[in-house]
Amino acid sequence: MQQVKLFKSVEAEISSLETEINNWIRENGIRVVSIRGNIAPQTVSDPTGGGLNRFSPSDVLIVVTYETPE
Predict the structure, then answer these.
(1) Backbone angles phi, psi at 13, to 5 degrees
(2) Which has the least CB within 10 A, 38, 39, 49, 59?
(3) What is the pLDDT of residues 31-65, one digit of tens each?
(4) Global confidence as pTM
């Protein structure tokens, strides 16, 4: 039976997210069916009303469809 696991992080921590996902797969003997991801850019407006002045870290969402060993 296929299941889904979600991983969420920010773009500045992508390396840590990759390590977390790889460890989860390895430690649980997961058979990955597919991995999909999305990065959602975030912007922060200038509090003085002068428009956009910088970018905040983007959210990263990874969806892993998997099967557990029988």
Answers:
(1) -115, 25
(2) 49
(3) 999 999 999 877 665 566 555 556 678 899 999 99
(4) 0.77
Tell me how many degrees the CA angle 37-18-31 measures, rounded to the nearest 5.
75
Which residue, among 3, 11, 5, 2, has the nearest Cα to 38 in the 3D structure? 11
d(CA 63, CA 13): 16
- Say if residue 6 is exposed, middle or buried (CB neighbours under 10 Å; 0-12, 13-18, 19+): exposed
* Rounded-to-integer distance, Cα 8 and Cα 37, Å: 10
Report how far residue 19's alpha carbon sits from residue 32's, in angstroms, rounded to the nearest whole number.
15
**Residue 47: CB atoms within 10 Å:** 7
